[in-house]
Amino acid sequence: MNTTNKTITICMGSSCYARGNVYNVETIQCWLRQHGLEDNVELRGTLCEGLCRQGPIVKIGDTVYKGVTPSSIAEILAHEFPEVENG
Fold first, then answer.
1. Average pLDDT value for residue range 16-40
2. CATH code, residues 6-85
3. What is the pTM of this model?
4. What HEC string does 19-72 produce?
5. How far is it, in rounded angstroms, from Cα 86 to Cα 67?
6. Distance from first CA to last CA of the chain, Å, rounded?
7. pLDDT value of position 7
């Protein structure tokens, strides 16, 4: 698998955390594990990104995703890692 190393940054500021990033972290970790990407993707948390009203915020590479929910994260990850979904 020729996966580019990417970084996923999850806002863990109080607003994003309370609005769902606590669950998004678990969903992302599970998705990465299921697709064998744990060693290729750096997953890290950050304090407030300053976009509280638009949260929960998840940043993948340079792309900022706003209003991320556990139900939307799989689609976002499939978009960011098409080589995994397409074999």
1. 93
2. 3.40.30.10
3. 0.87
4. HHHHHHHHHHHHHHHHCCCCCCEEEEEECCCCCHHHCCCEEECCEEECCCCHHH
5. 26
6. 8
7. 95
Question: β-pairing, 41-46 with 63-65?
Answer: unpaired
pLDDT at 51: 87
Contacts of 78 (CB under 8 A, 6+ apart): 84, 85
| pLDDT, tens digit (0-9, with 9 covering 90-100), for 50-86 | 888 999 999 999 999 999 998 999 999 999 998 876 5
Burial of residue 22, with CB atoms counted within 10 A of its CB: 0-12 exposed, 13-18 middle, 19 or more buried: middle
Question: Cα separation of 28 and 35, whole Å?
Answer: 11
